[in-house]
Structure formats: structure tokens, C-alpha cells
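Internal tracking record. Fields below are filled automatically when a chain is submitted to the structure queue. Please do not edit lines marked as system-generated. If the sequence contains nonstandard residues, flag them in the REMARKS field before resubmitting.
Queue: standard
Priority: normal
Entity type: single polypeptide chain
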Amino acid sequence: MKALAILALTLSLSWGAMTTGTVYDKATSKPIQDAIIISGNKEYRTDSNGSFSVPPASLIGVRAVGYERKFYTSGGKMYLNRFIPKALYLSSFGATSGKIMGNAKNLIRSTEINALVIDVKMDRGQIAFKTANPIANKIGAQQIILFKDMKSFIADLHKEGIYVIARIVSFKDTPFVTAYPQYGVKKDDGTLFKDKEGLYWIDASRTDAHKYIIDIAADAATAGFDEVQFDYVRFPDRKGIKFSVENTQANRVKAIAGFLEAARTRLTPYNVFVSADIFGYVSWHDADIDIGQRVDALAPFVDYLSPMLYPSGFNAGIPGYPNPVKANYEIVKNSLDKALTKSANSPLCYRPWLQAFKDYAFDRRIYGDKEIRDQIRASEDFGSCGWILWNPRNVYTGAGLIKLQRTAEKIIEKPAS
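SYSTEM-GENERATED OUTPUT FOLLOWS
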């Protein structure tokens, strides 16, 4: 009896120390179910009434798909504004170019664009801002430091109401594999595999190599990015290669899903959104198309999946539409619909990449007002949480965009000090 009494008292005291609250949509005052609560470096969810009970912490992180992220110093009523990112992609060189960034900011001020995806870990393995990561410095990944003060750079963008996403090129990494060839994807003859660009890839099945990539992502979160987006989070789409495990679908999918799970866990304390880029055709297949990406397997570990739905990339078209550049709306809408049937979550858990560059595979058409707007309309009819325009040269105009005048406003609330 005495032991039971002590147990009851312990539970009572423990319960009394919990931080409780309710998360509401600021515009409607309706509770938000499944909002993410971060406390003590762990992730929790609100119930159907928007309520939660978590261990106390000096800061409580709150976010939800389709909304902003915020931090609170105590429980009680919490309010989130709806936020739908409509983004442009900028390389690290573009983001640090006065001309290119100036054009992007002009579009943000005059059109519906309100977000930027910016390279942090670049296609050739270089990390564009100063990091204390010992491996990055050892392998020469810090030879090109374009952002002299990343925190200030992001803070300035936040002052203009811009949502900022860090693009992390994950497993394509020549400097890392050059320094540590044992972690590289191999050809059947045992030599290192190189892709068409002559670049090496990290073998994603080597879980001991995941930490390096995830640590860089954590550095980006520390710098203040609102979202961390993993690109090239896959195996190379080539035949005749081998990994540290048998090259089977089960092993490939396990490796990629495991990486995203570990990344989400590592990034939990920062309350950043987590996203991953996937091939467009992944939406149409139950198998992983030999790269380790399957919608149903990856969706549980990210806030947003970003399928790359460039019509020019759909070399075989889709059912009923053999010429994808003549079916821009259908490529995007039907692909998103297909993906949703596999993940069984909300359309808000998707934010597709859309084409804003000249076709290279079919009739060489310029992607202008109609082509871009058709893709955007498809995304919005589906109900996605925004979209991202891709132009590898970072050349964007107002084509296809709704024009408006926006005054600078703060979208993301900084953590309380």
C-alpha cells in the first residue's frame, strides 16, 4: 500500500509539472490538430482539440503543416498564422549576387512570391557558409565560402517577411568521397562510381556517413533557416553499381527512410520544418524506381515532400498525356493526386517543384505565363502547401505570377531570448 501511495504521489507531482496548452488557427480561432510541439528535444502532437501536455522547457516550439513556426516561453493559448510558401530557387552564387538577389526581392515585393530556397550544401559538396564542422574543413568543402555571416543574411530576409529554406544536397558529394572512398558508391568492379557530371556519391546504405550531412543541416537550422530541405536524398539512378548492402528495394528504401528519420530527430530541437525532394515519377510507382524513394516510406519522416514535377523531365509522359509539355496542368495535378493515394496524408504535406526554364526534351518551348500558371493552378487545385519554381540559372520574371504590392512584414517569429 505504501509503495502504491508513493507511486500515486510521484505520478501526481509529475503530471502537475507538465506544460499544457492549446494551439489555434489565428484567423479562425479553431484548434489545430496534429500541430507539432517541441519540448525537451522531443516531438509531440496536439490532439483533436488542439491540446497538448508536455514536459516543461524554457522554450516550447510550435509548428504545423500549412502554418508558420513559433516559440513560446510558457503554455496556454498559442496561435499560428497560416502560411503557404511560394518560392524561388537560388543557388549560393545567385543568393550572394546583388543583381540576382535584387531581382528576387523585386518579385517578392511585387508578386505572390514570399519564400526562397537557397543552396547551403551545394551540388559539388561545397558548403557555402562558414562551419566549424571538422570534416568539412578537412576534406576541402570550405574552399568556397559565399555567405560571410549566414545568421545576419537570414535575419535580413526575415525582416522583409521572407520564408527561407536551406537546400542540402545530400548524397552527391565528391569532396567527402574523395577523402573517404570507403563510403562511396562503387561500380561492380569495385572502383568508385562517377555520375555523368563526373561526381562521386556517398553510399546511402552506410549509416555511419549520415552524420556528416545531418550535422551540416543542423548548422543551417542554427543559422535561422525556417526549413531544411534534403535534395539528392537517394541512390544514383544507374545500373551496375553496388552498395555496402545487397542492392535490393528493401535495403535502398530502408537506407533513405532511415536517413530522414535520423535527420528529423537531430533537427527536432530547432523546430524547423523538414522536407525532401523526390523524383516526379516516384508518384506513379509502387516500387522505388531503383533509387530508394517511395512515397509511403518517406512521408512519415518529413513535414513536406517536394516532387520534382518538371514536365520536361517526364520523358515517357503520363497515362493519357504522351507529350508532357503540352499538358503542364495534368502532369502536376495527376502526379500529386497519385502521390497522395500512396501517403494517405494531407495535400498540405506536399510542395512541388515546378518548371520555370526552357524545355529541353520536346519542342524547346519557352516556359512563360501560360505554362507556369498552369503548373501553379494545378498545385493549388490539389491543395499543396505552396510550390517552388526552379530555374538553374536563377533567371526569373513575373511570368505566370500574380502581381501584388506587399509591404515588408515579419512572418516568422524569432525564438524568445
